[in-house]
Every structure is written in structure tokens, then in C-alpha cells.
Amino acid sequence: MSDAEPILPDTDDEAFGIAKGLVDDVLAAVDRGDKAAIDALLDPEHPADIAHLLELIDGRNRTDLLKLWKGGVDGDILSELDDNLRDEVIDTLAPAELAVAVRDLDSDDVVDLVEDLDLKQQEAVLDALDDADRVHVEKALTYPEESAGRHMQVEVVRAPEHWNVGEAIDFLRSDDHTLPDQFYHLILVDPRMKALGYVTLGRILSTRRDVPLKDIVEDSFRTFNVNQDVEEVANAINHYHMITAPVVDDDDRILGVITIDDAMAFLEEEAEEDLMRLAGVGEGSLSDRVVKTTKQRFPWLAVNLVTAILASLVIALFEETIAGLVALAVLMPIVASMGGNAGTQSLTVAVRAIATRDLTPSNVWRVIRKEVLVGLINGVIFAVIMGIVGVVWFGQPMLGVVIALAMVINLVVAGLAGTGVPVLLEKIGVDPALASGAFVTTVTDVVGFFAFLGLAAVLLL
Length: 461
Hints:
Layout: H1 22-32, H2 35-42, H3 47-56, H4 59-68, H5 75-80, H6 83-92, H7 95-102, H8 107-114, H9 119-127, H10 131-141, H11 148-151, E1 158-160, H12 165-173, E2 185-189, E3 195-200, H13 201-205, E4 224-225, H14 230-240, E5 244-248, E6 254-259, H15 260-278, H16 290-317, H17 319-324, H18 327-355, H19 364-394, H20 397-427, H21 432-459
Parallel strand pairs: 1-2, 4-5
Antiparallel strand pairs: 2-3, 5-6
């Protein structure tokens, strides 16, 4: 192999994430107390991968690692950590280490880092900042938690509206100011600092120097109020394929920006949160301690117990019917289970559509009709299947008719409840992802048992 021939990567390597064996190698170095080996293993790694590694190991090994890897944790690693684990890591850092860690972070990353900390930890981080940066962070913390102002970065590159491309390039290359580490647009402002448009760096570099900046502004330009919901801003960035979303005050003066990477991270976080809530596990993570995880899951297990009791009460109403035909007890869970699964399918689609604003008052009835029709079609198909199963298994044609009718009824109700319940909850101000699952399960269980046993009482006994 010649010296000029490139070394190809191992095709078995993952596209991203920590390399195989890194966790074991780091833990072995921790057991040996080998600081040099830890530095050699972790220094080349990306902050996101180091954060992932810290989340993978247990608390004792994590504490030992942080004691040995003094000065290794920086702001980028802290910003990538799970919120609960971040508190633990910050507690291990001396004030001087914390100051170094947060000093080079953008303002929005610092805000994200400190907003969930207790007052003592917040003060430690704020004390580590320069006076100007501290003012920006404290101001951001005064905005509502889910507002654009809380999540914007104040490092913005502005230019007067009358400049041309040459003046902009000279400005960007001069040493009279400090530019953000990463930025994508030059925002044009009037003398009152009102945002008028923006120009991409690519357009600036590919245009003649004498062309006015206002002649090459982007069509996607739009501004967002500092108090606007950050989820709305993130969805707008995604919808309009924006890279930068300028954030303005009530007088349209530019205050900061939300960039596409932060918007996508927020949307991913919201989608993950909805998924976790649908499963009744709140905002838990693998790094949470046993007691905390237990507390998060207990309320929804308690709710599930109540719904199960309600379903059992319906079954108790038909105790004599079940005693008269034991086959009902065998087939009964099938109806409820099919309804529950169908309801969950409709529920998941509806909750996500509400979050992305695809489900609105203008199309809600069309979507509900569609889900009911899907439930009806699937109900008929599975009714035929279960009708045949009922006849072949138990030799009673009417039993097949009963379970077939019950299957149709429950799958239609599942489609209706799966879409209607989250829409209703959202309308009355309750998070659909948080509460819909328990209601839909209750409806499908109660309706399934009542339809099946009620029809059996009428047609069989």
C-alpha cells in the first residue's frame, strides 16, 4: 500500500455513536486509575458521544470517571447530557471548571443548561459568565418556558439595509467585532433595528460586490415574536424550510434568532415526549434512579387499575351469561384486545397530527369519518375471520355471529374514540398525549365487553 492511498473505514462501524468496546476500555482505565488512558480515549470523541457514554455507565463508575478526568467535561458535553444526569455532573465540577465549561457556549445553550438547575447550581453557572453574557441569559430566563425568547440565541449578525455585498464582506472580515461561531444569515435592519430581511452567506459570497444586499434577500424571511410558542416557531422553520428564524420584540426590533439545528432538536424532543407520555412513562430516561422512575410510572398504573376495575364491573354484570356458556370467557379478551389495538393506532396518528397541526378544526370531521370507516372495514374483515373461528372451534354458528358483531362494533368505536378523545382533550386544554391512552383503553374495553356479552345474553341465552 502506498503512502498516498487512503485508509478506508471499517465497514462494520456504525454511522454515528461511540465505537464498539469504548465503554469497556474506559471502565477498565477507571478501574486502573489511569488518567492518561482516559484522556487518550475520550479526548478524540465528539461531545455527543461522550455524553452518551456517561449516560450508559452506572452512577459509581460515572463518579469515579469524572474524578479522574478533571477538566475534561466542557460546555458542549453538558449541553448534550440528559437533564437529570446534567445536574449530577455539574455537582462534581469545581467552580473554576464550570466557568471554563460554559464560557464558550452560545447564549441559548447556556439557558438550556441552567433553566432546569436548582438555584445554587444556576448561580454557579451564571457566576462563571462574563457580565454581558450573564445579562443575556438572565433576560432569557424571564421569558415563558416554552417561548421563543427563552430558546433564542442573542448572537446575531446584523447589517444596515443600505449596504451592498462588498460592504458586508468587508464587515464580516474585519476585526472590529466578534462573530458567532456558527451563523447562516446576515439580517438586514433599519436604523431602529427593525428586521427587514436576511441574506444567506452563500448568496453574499457568490454575488458581485456592488449589488445591494436588499436585492438578494431570501423569500422565506419572516419574523417571530419573542413571546410566541417555540413549538410554533420550530414547526414554521420545518414547514418553510428556513435556516434561521429571527425573533423580534413587539416593535419588530431584532432580539435574537432560533436556528434550524435547535428547531429540529426541539421537535425531536417534543415527539419523544409525546411518545413517552402515550406509554404512560412521563419524561423518564434510562439514567433516572429507581425511586424517581417508580414515582413517574405509579400514577398511570393507578389510572390503568381504575379503568381495569370499570371493565371488570361490566363483566360482572354478565356473570350468569358467562357461567351459562364458558366459551364466552375464552373469546371475550379477543374482542377487547382488538379494540384496544385499533384505538391505539388511531390515537397515535391523531396525537401526532395535533402536535404537527395537520389535524385542525377544518378537517377534524373528515379524519374522524375516515378512522370510523377504517374501523368498520377492518371490523368486517376480522368479524368474518372470528365468526369462522367461533363456529369451527366451538361448533356454534350463533356464537360466531355474536363475536363477529361485537368485533365490528368495537373496532368502529375504537376508530371514533382514538381520534375523538385526543381532539376533545386538546379542545379543553388537556395534553392529548398525556391523558388520551387511559380514556381510549377504557372505552374500547367497556364497549368490547358490553357488546360481546350483551349480544351473547340476547342471542345465545
